Amino acid sequence: MGSSRPVQSVTNTELYNRWAKVYDTDGNILQSIDDLMLPDLLNQVFTFLPSSNLVTITELGCGTGRNTVKLLTPSPAFPQITSIAALDLSPGMLTIAKQRCEDHLKSNASDTTQAPPLIEFHEFDALNPDLSPEINALERKADLVLSTLVLEHLPLDVFFRTVKYFLRSGGYVLLTNMHAGMGRISQAGFVDEVTGEKIRGHSYAHETSQVVEEGEKWGFEVVGEVGERAVGSADLGTVVGERGKKWIGVNVWFGFVMRLSQMETQP
Ligand SMILES: C[S@@+](CC[C@H](N)C(=O)[O-])C[C@H]1O[C@@H](n2cnc3c(N)ncnc32)[C@H](O)[C@@H]1O
């Protein structure tokens, strides 16, 4: 499955600042599988949250807002989301996310059935949280932390420490990630159209079971199913494009919901 393309290794900030321009259009199969799998997980986590409650969400690694914007679209399955804090390492990705959410809210402004969530964006590095002191205001505020396709860039303890920092006790995390089956062969990156190089950053191939175990150490428990998804031949041309061909039969994605114990206090 290897490619003879030259590879350039860069920091994750540089990777995503450069990838931002084509992130939503370069036919990345993992995003397509995530688009397919996320709605069920979102519906599931919203059934766990009391329907009478107003919901506050922190998104860790919002990227270009691919999934942030889904939270702005009212759905009968969703509770009333009052605020979303969308955080990301990469200013380039955040610029696109802000524009995308602004455009979405403008074009849906005539829908007055429900007030749209207040949304704020922050540059934030989970590996260096002290560089973003304004984030302190978000400590223990979230009912839900959403984090899609970000975990591969973080050590597991950093991921769960960060999620726990943002969550109120009894809150939920919905996480999706590149499966280790894919991560052992590949990692997040894109092809620079000008140089033809594959640009990649730093990634980990986390096994699903290790993620669950680490979460448990931090006071989380899985609720619902742990989902794993391989690319099937029927996905070609429907869910994924040509780039999906080499991944047929390989697990590429996992995702699930965990709840933080009510008893947990911050470390
Ligand atoms: C594969 S993208 C996923 C973006 C978006 N969640 C999605 O599903 O399309 C990974 C994102 O994680 C962000 N990221 C990587 N390392 C991070 C860190 N240390 N702290 C915060 N965000 C990080 C990147 O900037 C990038 O936007």
TrEMBL record:
| InterPro entries in the record | Methyltransf_12, SAM-dependent_MTases_sf
Q: Which UniProt keywords apply?
A: Methyltransferase, Transferase
Q: Mind telling me which Pfam families this protein's record contains? A: Methyltransf_12
Domain Methyltransferase type: from-to ranges: 59-172
Kindly list the biological process annotations in GO that this record carries.
Answer: methylation
The entry lists its GO molecular-function terms as: polyprenyldihydroxybenzoate methyltransferase activity
Question: Does the keyword field hold Transferase?
Answer: yes
What Gene3D superfamilies is this protein classified in? Vaccinia Virus protein VP39
Per its record, how is this protein called by name?
Answer: S-adenosyl-L-methionine-dependent methyltransferase
Organism of origin is: Hyaloscypha variabilis (strain UAMH 11265 / GT02V1 / F) (Meliniomyces variabilis)
